[in-house]
């Protein structure tokens, strides 16, 4: 049932183009100009009444939520807070009936996420769940549910569930923007066109997996490395770092590129690998200057850039991997794919049990 792949994780990475298509299917109007989320029971009146959004999740789902926060804030201009579920309940969050709480969970059974959902409902908030499992506890208890159509995810390391959650957030952000009138219809139509190109763009990344295998084999020789990025790239950097830690057991940290010189730069020494994400044009110069800072201290830099970006390899960046061009806010759906492959091949090179990493379970049903 691995369909010819060596591991479920690799199979699931390759299933992403289909997962993107399936998650979008039936949710874009026939004229391609708006998002249709028939499963959302909120009236336009209720949507206009949302004062703030809380996103609550664990692990990889939390990282999808970080991207979701950027999307909702930029598309719908509603303030969003985000918490890991195990922290949320214990910090006495200010939840009112005008708060929309979005819980994100692949399995829909994560104990902390479920507890957060119940707390939100107790405070009178409306809860939207983004989950992959129909009939899961989270899907049954939430007021509204968006099902990601990733199909069953078996590997402990989440891949296609994460990217399907990104697609769900993109659709939901556009749906809010349309309802609230924060973005005009032509703009929304352009984003939907770009979204529908994502599956084939992922395919073009997957075709270059061998290049990443080679990079991963050299990363696997290190015990420490860093991921850096700004804005939405930082959110993806965190997911790349978690993926690498959980299956390769290589210690890594994701850092907002501009924050390095406030302490972490002290850890940069000769030969340490730094994976830098630079997909956001408006932040390009700033991130490049941070890259030069680590390079000057001897780091070996792998840059993840948009196709066509002119960077002088060898000077500030040692190796480049280009991702196809898309709109800046959609880039996480592409830039995470090479990071998933790096984690997979690094785990393989280290001889680990890729699908069942030590100490971890697929579904965490204890708090
Ligand atoms: O089923 P959930 O999405 O609620 O699971 C949340 C986390 O346990 C999960 O994403 C975990 O971080 C993955 N193993 C990461 O690959």
Automatic annotation (TrEMBL):
Its main location: cytoplasm. Keywords: Aminotransferase, Cytoplasm, Glutamine amidotransferase, Repeat, Transferase. Its EC number is 2.6.1.16. The active site is at 362 (for fru-6p isomerization activity). It catalyses: D-fructose 6-phosphate + L-glutamine = D-glucosamine 6-phosphate + L-glutamate. Residues 43-186, 215-357 form the SIS domain. The keyword Cytoplasm applies. It comes from the Bacteria. Homodimer. This is Glutamine--fructose-6-phosphate aminotransferase [isomerizing]. It comes from Paenibacillus sepulcri. The chain holds residues 244 to 610 of 610 of the full protein.
């Amino acid at each position: 049932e691995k369909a010819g792949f060596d591991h479920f994780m690799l199979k699931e990475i390759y299933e992403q183009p289909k997962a993107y298509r399936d998650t979008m299917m039936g949710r874009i109007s026939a004229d391609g100009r708006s998002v249709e989320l028939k499963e959302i029971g909120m009236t336009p009146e209720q949507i206009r009444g949302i004062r703030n959004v809380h996103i609550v999740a664990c692990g990889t789902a939390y990282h999808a939520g970080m991207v979701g926060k950027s999307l909702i804030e930029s598309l719908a201009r509603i303030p969003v807070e985000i918490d890991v579920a195990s922290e949320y309940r214990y910090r006495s969050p200010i939840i009112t009936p005008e708060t929309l709480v979005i819980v994100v969970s692949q399995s829909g059974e994560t104990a902390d996420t479920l507890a957060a959902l119940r707390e939100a409902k107790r405070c009178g908030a409306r809860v939207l769940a983004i989950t992959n499992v129909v009939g899961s506890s989270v899907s049954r208890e939430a007021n509204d549910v968006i099902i990601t159509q990733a199909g069953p995810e078996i590997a402990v390391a989440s891949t296609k569930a994460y990217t399907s959650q990104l697609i769900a957030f993109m659709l939901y952000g556009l749906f809010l923007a349309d309802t609230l009138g924060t973005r005009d219809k032509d703009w929304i139509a352009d984003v939907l066109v770009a979204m529908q190109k994502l599956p084939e763009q992922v395919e073009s990344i997957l075709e270059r997996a061998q290049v990443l295998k080679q990079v991963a084999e050299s990363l696997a020789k290190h015990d420490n490395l860093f991921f850096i990025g700004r804005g939405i790239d930082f959110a993806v950097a965190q997911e790349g770092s978690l993926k690498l830690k959980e299956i390769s057991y290589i210690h890594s940290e994701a850092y907002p590129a501009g924050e390095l010189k406030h302490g972490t730069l002290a850890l940069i020494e000769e030969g340490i690998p730094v994976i830098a994400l630079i997909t956001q044009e408006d932040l390009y110069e700033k991130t490049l200057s941070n890259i030069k800072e680590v390079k000057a201290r001897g780091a070996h830099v792998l840059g993840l850039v948009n196709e066509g970006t002119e960077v002088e390899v060898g000077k500030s960046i040692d190796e480049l991997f280009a991702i196809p061009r898309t709109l800046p806010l959609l880039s996480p759906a592409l830039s995470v794919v090479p990071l998933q492959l790096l984690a997979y091949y690094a785990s393989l090179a280290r001889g680990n049990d890729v699908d069942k990493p030590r100490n971890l379970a697929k579904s965490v049903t204890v708090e």
